[in-house]
Amino acid sequence: MRIYPPWDEVHNKQAKNTKNWQKDNFVKIEENNTTALELLKVLLK
Asked: Mind telling me which InterPro entries this protein's record contains (predicted)?
């Protein structure tokens, strides 16, 4: 399984499709270390 974070550039169709469905499962960690805790709870269930 390959994981494509938002900052990764992909160059082929399969990688673009994979990155597209993965994008909603990344949680941005802010500089002050705050996160969307409710979203993390949902994703980790």
From this structure: MepB-like, MepB-like_sf
